[in-house]
Amino acid sequence: MSCLTTIQDYALRSIGFGKRLLPASDITVCEQFTLIGSGLIWNIYFGVIALLVGFFLACALALGKNSHVAWLRRPSEGFIFLFRGSPLFIQFFFAYFAFLALKKVGFVPWLTSAQAGALLVLVFNTAAYSAEIFYGALQAIPKGDVEAADAYGFTGWKKFRRVVWPSMLRLSWPAYTNEAIFLMHATTLVFFSGFPAWQQKGDALYYASYFADKTFNPFVPYPILAGYFILLTLIVIGCFGIVNQRLNRHLPTGQRQKMKLRLNLIR
Amino acid sequence: MFEFCADPASLEGISWFACYLTTGKHMSLYWSILTVLSLLLITAPTALLFGFAGASAARSGFAPLRWLGQIYVAIVRGVPDIAFFLFFVIALDQGFEYLRHQALCPDWSEPIRQGNDFIVCKAAKLPLSTAPQWVHEVYGFFLAVITFAIVFGAFAANVLLGAMRAVPQAQLETAQAYGMSRRQVFWRILVPQMWLYALPGLSNLWVILIKATPLLFLLGVEDIVYWARELGGSKNARFTDYPHGDWRLWYFLGLLVFYLAFTYLSERILAKVNRRLSRGQGIVGATP
After folding, report:
1. What is the pLDDT of residue B74?
2. How far is it, in rounded angstroms, from Cα A189 to Cα A181?
3. What pLDDT shows up at residue B1?
4. Shortest CB distance from A263 goes to which of B78, B86, B253?
5. Chain B residue at shortest CA distance from A179
6. Residue A208 is nearest to which of B83, B159, B213, comparing CB atoms?
7. pLDDT above 50: residue A234
8. Would A230 be classed as within a structural domain?
9. How far is B198 from chain A (nearest CA, A)?
C-alpha cells in the first residue's frame, strides 16, 4: 500500500471519514504520520473554539474581578479560583461524571460527548487563566491613559472600548500568547480523562499512544507528535505576533513590545 | 474497622458511612494520598537539580553543551507535557532493560526489536518476573519520579535561566574586576543571588507540580484518581458489603476540593516565604 492511499484512507479518520479499521500490524511510518496528523484536527478544534469563546468570557471575568461591586467581584474571584486552583485532569473527570448524572435525569444528554462536554471545560478553564492575566493588565494600565480619556469626556462603554480595553490587551498579550500555547497542549488531555473516544475517533495523542502500545516502540509516534505540536506552537506564536503588532502600532518603535519565542511559565 | 461494622446490612445513616469509609479499599485510597505527597517531596528537589544542571548547561561556554541545555529547555515547552509522560515511561523502561541486557546476556544473538515486540533475555527484565508485587509497584513509582523530574527539570531550568539573567550585570563585572575566574563568579556571585529572582517562578512551579500529580494515573501508578474511579463506580461496589450507585461524581468532587485546599495552602505559605526573603532587598515589593 503506497503512502498516498494511506493518506486517502486515514487523513480524516479522526472525524469519521475513510477506513474504519485502524492499522494493527505491519504499521508503517506513513500510517503513523497520517493518523497522528488526523488526530490533530481535534486538538485544533478544541483549542481554537475554546480560545475564541474563552476570550470574551475572560474579558468579562477580568472586569468582574476588577469591579467595586461585591456581587460582581466575588463570583468572578470564585470562578477564577476554582478553575486555576484545581488540576484540569480532575476537572475533566468531575465534569464528565457530572454530565453523566445529568444525562440520567434526561438533562442535556449531549454534554457527555467530548466535542461538547470537554470543550465546555476547556472554555471555562482557559477563561479563568486568561481572566487572571487580563486582571493583572487592568491593574497595570498607565494612569495617564485613563486620565486623558476622562479629560476628553469619555465615559462608560466608550472609555472602555477606546482606552481601557486596548491597553489591557496590549499589556497582557505576551502572557496571553503563552496561555494559548498551554491551552493547545492541554487539549491532549481530553481523551485520557474519562471522555470516551467514539469509534476510535481521538486526538493526536490518542493515536500516538495507540501506536506506542501496538508497536511497543515509543521512539517513532511520540517524536512525530512532538513535531506536529512544535509546528502548531509556532503557528500560534505567528498569529498572535500579528495581533501584537496591531495592538502596538501607535507606539514609537523603541517602546513596542517585541514578541520573542519566549516560552515562559505562567500557569 | 469499628466493632459495629460486623453486619453492614443492618447499618444506616452515619454509622453506615463510618463503616463504608473505613473499608480496606478506602484505606488504600488514603494511602495513595501519601503516594502523591511522597512523589511531590522526591520530585521537587530532583527536578530542581535537573533544572540547575540544564540552566548551567544552557549558559556554558562550551557550545555543544550549551545547545544541549537550550534544546532541553525549549523542547519541553513546545510539546505537551502529557506526551512526555507517556513517552518517558516506556522509553526509560526499555532503556534500562536494554542496558541490563547488554551487560547480563552478552551472547544473545537475536535482535531485540522483532516486529512489534521488544525482547530482552529473562535475566534483564525489570523488575524480574519472580519479584514480589511491591517491587513492581516501587519500580513503576520510580519511573514516574524520573519522568516527572525530567519534565519539571526543564520547567525549573527555564525559571533558573531567567533568574540568572536577572542578576544585575554590574555585580558580575565587579567580581571579574576583582580577578575572579568564570567559575568563581558563577558559584560565589551568581548562584547565591539568583534564588531571590527565581523564587516567584519556583513557587509557581510548585503549584503546577501539585496540579500535575493526578497525571500519575496515566503512568500506571495506583494513585488517588485510580482509587476514586474504582471505589466510586457501581460495578465493583455491587459485590461488596456496601452496595451503592455510581458515586464517581462525589469522589471526584472530593478530589477537586482536596486539590483546591492544597494549592490554596501552598500559595499562602509561599507568599509569606517570598515576603520574608525579599525583606531588605532593593526591589519593588520589598518591605524595608
Report:
1. 80
2. 14
3. 59
4. B78
5. B77
6. B83
7. yes
8. yes
9. 12
Domain, as residue range, for A83? 28-255
B218 interfaces chain A, CB cutoff of 8 Å: yes
- Position B115 scores a pLDDT of 66
Number of domains making up chain A = 1
CA distance to partner chain A, nearest, from residue B86 (Å): 7
CA distance A200 to chain B (A): 18
Query: Distance between CA atoms of B285 and B242, rounded to whole angstroms?
Result: 55
Which stretch of A214-218, B120-124, B268-272 has the lowest confidence by average pLDDT?
A: B120-124
Is the residue at A73 inside a domain? yes
Report the pLDDT averaged over residues A29-43. 90
| Percent of chain B surpassing pLDDT 70 | 89
- Establish if A170 belongs to a structural domain: yes
Q: Which domains, from first to last, does chain B contain? A: 3-277 (1.10.3720.10)
Does B215 lie at the interface with A, CB-CB under 8 angstroms? yes
B residues 251..280 contacting A (CB < 8 A): 252-253, 255-256, 259-260, 263-264
Residues of chain A with pLDDT > 70: what percent? Answer: 95
Q: What is the pLDDT of residue B163?
A: 87
The continuous run of DSSP H or E covering A143 comes out as helix A143-151
d(CA B213, CA A105): 33
For position B116, what pLDDT does the model report?
67
Sequence-ordered list of residues with C-beta below 8 angstroms from that of B166, at least 6 positions apart, any chain? B194, B197
- For B75-118, the pLDDT digits (tens) are 777 888 888 888 888 888 888 888 888 887 777 777 777 666 77
Looking at the domain assignment, is residue A260 inside a domain? Answer: no
Give one word for A172, left, alpha or beta, with left for phi > 0 and alpha for psi -120 to 50.
alpha
Identify the weakest region by mean pLDDT among A37-46, B36-45, B157-166, B236-245: B236-245
Q: How many CA atoms lie within 13 A of A76 on its CB side?
A: 24
**Which CATH number does the domain housing residue A39 bear?**
1.10.3720.10
Cβ-based contacts of A98 with chain B (< 8 Å): 249
Q: H or E element: which one contains B274?
A: helix B248-277
ipTM of predicted assembly, 2 dp? 0.86
